[in-house]
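Budget justification note: compute hours in this period were largely spent on complex prediction jobs such as the one shown. Inputs:
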Amino acid sequence: MMTDLMDTAREIVRQWAFVLAVSPILPGIVAKTKAWFAGRRGPPLLQPYRDIFKLFRKGAVYSRTTTWLFRAGPVVSFSAALAATLIIPLGGMESPLTFQGDLILFAYLWGLSRFFTMTAALDTGSAFEGMGASREAAFSCLAEPALLLGLLALAREAGSFSMSDVLSVGLIRIWSIHAPALCLVTAAFLVVFLTENSRIPVDDPNTHLELTMIHEVMVLDHGGPDLALIEYGSAVKFFALGALLVRIVCPIRSGGFWEGGAALVIGLAALSVLVGVIESTMARLRLSRIPQLLALSFVLSGFGVILTLAAGS
Amino acid sequence: MILWALAAVPVAGAILCLLIRRRTAVFACLIAGSALEATIAAAAGAVVYRRGAIDACFGHLALDALSAFHLCLVTGIFLFSSIYARDYFNHEPAAQSLDDRQARRFGALWFSFLGSMAGVLLFSNVGLMWVAMESTTLASAFLICTHSDRLSIEAAWKYLIICSAGLVLGLLGTVFIHGASPSPGAAGEGALRWPDLVARAGGMNPALVKIGFVLMVVGYGTKMGLAPMHTWLPDAHSQAPTPVSAVFSGVLLNCASYCICRFLPIVSAATGTPEWGRRILVGFGLASMAVAGVFILIQRDVKRLLAYHSVEHMGIITVGLGFGPAGCVAALYHTLNHSVCKSLAFFCAGRVGQRYGTRNMESISGSAAACPVWGTGLFASLLVLIGCAPGAIFMSEFLIVRAGISGGHFAASAVFLAAVAVVFCGALKHAIDMASGDPPARLEAPRPETSGARALAASMTAWLILTGVWIPAGLSAVFERAARLIAGP
Amino acid sequence: MTGEFPAVLVLVVITNFYILNTGRYVNSVRSIALQGCLLAVLPLPEALAGSPQALFLSAGTLIVKGILMPLILIRVIRSTDEFRVAQPFLGPVASVLVGFAILAAAFRAGALIPAPLRPHDGLMGAVGLATILTGMLIMVNRRKAVGQVIGFLILENGILILSLRISRGLPFVIEMAVLFDVLLAAMIFGGFIQSVHETFAHTDVSRMRKLKG
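Corresponding output:
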């Protein structure tokens, strides 16, 4: 009993250490790709580590109108992202945290993180941040069902509601039977991935034009360690959701933790390059277009569910 | 051979019309062509009457008692309308009259319209029948907007889009019925030929046939003007030039009802009981009669009034088809009467409208005095149309009700009679108001009518009254044989 | 005859949704063209099995639905200057969601169509039904004449799919005649829209409401 617990604890620590060590490089790769497209040299790959390190050393300034909610926002969202990574199996093995229904926990950890980010934004009492929060709420209304339906389609095909089962056991078999449905779900997840990580074409992480900002506007008032947590948290989020996508697209099974982890990192690096390409070649959508895109992604994963249901009956 | 000739005449006519230079020659060509077609159709009808069904082209073209009856009717009404068209366009005000180019286009479309309707009746393959039916829509859409003004274009657009969308459902119904056969692929190219379909109907999947038939009634019913799919009909009939309205109302709607008739025996064989299909028809028919009755009461435009009468009479025919074998005989009889009477009514209404310069019935009074031939004709045809006693329509409606009551459809017969009564009262008032009273002073003296026009109006009226009191034995034999194809022996 | 191409059918559904969503008629027409090409793929297995008729059908579908009709529509759109989709009832998001409801309902109903079953046949029936209903939705949910014609063509495509599902295709002669008829219809619709444009100076059919009662 005791040794089991110790084993799990060791796995958790190992996984966290891996995620925390690797994830900040991914925004670096995206930035590098964009720089390459723009013909610039760009910041070094390890720049995000330096940024985060620098921010952690600074002090924070808090407005007198804010309450504990404002401070809780970054902490909760960072912890939620970190918790979500535990659900993802890194290699072909079980993840440290696995039980029937962890798919739903995975989806709603992002909801929790979003809720606290929005409350923190509203807590400042700034009109701009409130606007960002309302946009975030509206768009996530459409993105969340897409994610959930897609997970539902996967769960239905794998016959299990556990992320470890879905992503490790049956994917190759599912690809051979339900390739169209899985393609649909992948496409939907890509849109959800871009939305959740506030990437182009939904949101622009680099914008400084308040009228078009969604996510960035909510974190304007955070500074120092809080901002560091937010940046780190978004890198971890990129890692977690990206890992889901990568596992679906190339469901290779590998033996151990390190081999699986290395394969995953290669996949994530490729995904980051893809994001960089998308950001360089596409324009940000008009705000009124975003619901259309998200509705389409919802329909795609819904269609995936329908296809799996139709084939099953 | 004779079937090929029937198909060839309209094609040749259409090409000829495009080649001819002058307007007058185009109209002469119209009359000659449709007279030729009517003669051939009559000859073919006589052959069918004496020797039974004939076919050609590996059975793709065929003529049996039912289609021969409709074919004679179509070509006959077309001939009358062609004769009338020349008169009508000669009396149009200068701004509206056709120039040579428009006349050529009108002639070509007129013949394509005739050809596609003949195609509906000649193709024994129900798939090709659908194709021909859709072509009638395409050919006639531009006939509605011969004068391209705003209202007629609006009407033609509605006609085009509603009928196309509706007919596509008819195609879907055909697909369902085709798929209901035990092995649809095995039957090969002839799989959709009507006699083969009827022969195989007993083994069909009843559920698919039922879905198919409902789609069919909705689809072809759109073209036929059954409520609630009738919305295009009043617009198209009122905005088209009158000869076109007469053909629309007189025969185009019949062609659609013919298509529905073709599927009745298949449905009754596949479902094992004739009642299921009939109930649907009675339902749609009564709905159309009720809707038409309401709109007839509040109508102001004389051509729209006649259009709603078409909806009503198509409803009557559909109810008749739903009343079993005796009802089918009466429905076919009613089809004939309605076609003759309605085209006469449109002829008269068109010319009276030209005379008064309006189609608003409130501005038309004393038409019997103002233009004796057409005003009187309008009054007489309206009386016959609403079912006044000595007229042919009275007789056929009476026969339908009799079939309904003897078949035990008491409720349906009661609704039928109520709707007919409402229409009678509503339309009688309109008819009397238009015919009686003094003509407005602003009308100039009437131009003398040509003898051809007089003869047309007089002969059609006489026919309507004559067949009301006495049906020739040959004619009733035609109805009996055709009805046997629809409702079984 | 078919059913070996679930991916093709899935793509047909995706084009439907794209047309429901898009704000430009040119994009709709492109998707219609794509849909026509996809439909041309469906009879191919039979053609490969040695049926020249299926090959003709496939080629005819490609030429008529994949090339000619889109060209006609593009010409009409150019000549009438109606590029933007205007929707009277449902906005793009709402119509996509309604389209999704239609899709779900079609899969529910498509499973009920009784006919000999093969793998993916249920998919075909459902996709056909969904395409028909989507076409109807587009027909009632477009203001401009071009939009209604696009809806009509989608409706027709759906019937083609459903006919392949229910009856393994209508006889060859009829399929070709229907194809020809639809081409004719597209031409007449096109000519008509131009005369509507000349007479009304717009093609917004929802504003044509002079005739009533």
